[in-house]
Task: structure prediction
Amino acid sequence: MGARIHLGTQGWNYPAWVGPFYPAGTKPHDFLSFYSRAFGTVEVDSTYHATPGEHVVRGWAERVPARFTFALKLPRELTPEAQAPDAGQLALFCERARLLGDKLGPVLVQLGPEFGPDRWHTVGAFLARLPAGLRWAVEFRQRGWVGPKLLDLLHRHGVALVLVEGRWLEREKMIDLAIRPTADFAYVRWMGGGKRIEDRDRELSMWAMALAALAARVSTVYGYFSNHFQGHAPASAREMQRLIGVSPVEPEQLRSQTSLF
Result:
């Protein structure tokens, strides 16, 4: 594989992970530090709800090693779903994001299932206004969006189409998009779907092959698992690491390192 593949989870602040993942007794303040010893990247959900304060961003950066990366969700009020996204607030968000320096990964623009292709011109105008110098990725959740017209638009702006393992588009069609990246990096999210957690070995194997296809076409791949995919995101991420030939850090290894904190 030519590209660097960064795998992690969607968030880290889960008290239920204490025991199965974080060592027993780990305090919430230390979750991120322990997380960063197992994975090299994480998707931050809290930024979807509000632009983080300067002290918050600096605190994240201070608790992780040098090569760690954060993928930040763009606040919903700044996405094309908002009636009138504030340019000043978008600039402020980007300013805060850049405080991460080399630890800043892509910025995820997440659009809801009610946001349909009838908003095409809104998306075009939004992409044209995006500040340069950041890696932007957009997630659509209506199948009507996906087609040559959208891929061409994203490619012209160097914006990645987020690949999602979920309900809104058939897996085979989503994986087929792996051979048609629209940016020099790729962004994958494993969401799951219904309430029932099924055996996902087949899906993981299919996605491992898709990651190989992506890695031959882009410089970097970012991928994040939800707890809803199999019930415990760290375990899913570790299994994918094994499938692509990366030795994961097991929970037992984190427990043996507790004396370092």
